[in-house]
Amino acid sequence: MKTSPFAFGDDFMTIAKALELARGETKGIITENTRQNILSNRNCVETIVKNRKTVYGVNTGFGPLCTTLIDGEDTRTLQYNLLMSHSVGVGNYIDPEISMLIMILKVHALCKGFSGIAIQTVERIIWHIDNAVIPCVPEQGSVGASGDLAPLSHLFLPLIGLGKVTYNGKITDSAEVLQLFGLQPVALGAKEGLALINGTQFMCAHAVVLLEKLHNCLDHADISAAMNLEAMLGSVKPFDQELHALRPHAGSVYVAQRMRTLLEGSQMVESHTDCSRVQDPYSLRCIPQIHGASRNAWLHLKEIILIEINSVTDNPIIFSDEKTISGGHFHGQPIALPIDYAALAASELGNVADRRVYLSLTEAGHGLPKLLMQHTGLNSGFMIVQYTTAALASENKTLCFPASADSIPTSLGQEDHVSMGSIAVRKALRIVDNLEKIIAIEMLTAAQGLDFRRPLRSSIIIENIHSLIRQHIAFADCDRIFYPDIQNAINILRSQEISKIAKLAENGEWGMDS
Fold first, then answer.
1. What pLDDT, on the 0 to 100 scale, is given for residue 274?
2. DSSP-based three-state secondary structure for 433
3. Catalytic residue of the set 56, 93, 254, 341
4. What is the band of 511 on the pLDDT scale with cuts at 50, 70, 90?
5. What total of structural domains would you count in the chain?
6. Is 427 among the domain residues?
7. CATH number at residue 367
8. Is the pLDDT score of 61 beyond 70?
């Protein structure tokens, strides 16, 4: 069911709202007030052109050609050539949903009324969104500085009848789809091409998806850790509320509270209250500190991206025909650094999950059979399953070098420091994709471990989650091909069915709609 319309330029964009718009669950509209603001701002550009006032990108060349003046009659050709010359992306096409997100975020920024765009151009982009005519955008080519120039150029080639689009699941020339709908290409006016391709929307759209996927991993990491703690008869004392009040980092406090909720009423917890063990290994004892630190990184990225997707990030900014400023809002540094931080946080979440998987296969499992299977020797049990988590965790570590630490001058030195934010966010998504697999495997091994603790029962939440896993993945009493089991576990994680069972809704700062 669709929610109430979202007013581009007026309403506050959240991560959840951006995803709803991209998935057709909400419709974006332009209010009359926003329309008038766009028209008024466009008139400023027309006045600049008419009065032959020199303004970068309106009647000058671009980058190192900023001192080259362009005649008024050539301003349309200038914008047309801009989109063509900057369409130099390479590699695979990005996911169509991310292309949709880029268009949505760009429209929202343009509707702020400081970009000098024509209302007809904005309406054409919205037509693409509403009709799911999705531009094909190569993934590589942006250095994340003067905006995401190359990918945004590919994104908006269809406006001028060039490039390719995905329509009805097929990739085709944009000109054919325009002809199908009886539409003509848009004739871009002065400054419009620059308004379209200057900005951080490519980075931000990927970051929106990153935040959603990492949020889901954080949720499931706590759950799989709780399951594994139960299987290994770990202590709940490290999650004590008074303890965490002494070091109240927001993430740690929240994870400790989640662990207490997840394990409330567990017979397994009660079964070893008076055991002789003093403390557990760090991967169990420090779950709030480790998972909580990753949550803090997620929260920091969310706060930064919320500012970014509700900002004007193109160049120059048109305040009036008398005041135009060529600034640096297109530079991706403010988001590149926290994206790299989030990537590190995701990698660490997988690193500690792999340690718990390994721990459950050893004597540290406190009564669990070696390799989580009774008759080993003839059977290898879950030995090689842990190889996979180790491989994924190691791969993630190699991806953790911060892309934002690098800078290569471009544009003949005019753009002498760049953020590489586009590389950072694509890399971060690869890390989270690996993280999903690691956590899914931990759920698989933890479910196996819980079965060896019968007839003891865990909490109601954990038991219901265990039942869901067993609906899709059977207990392993001997060796079999584990690949289908792992794939099923990954599918369960991505479906978010477990989160629904846990009913631990994350509101406020930990939610995506705030």
1. 77
2. helix
3. 56
4. confident
5. 2
6. yes
7. 1.20.200.10
8. no
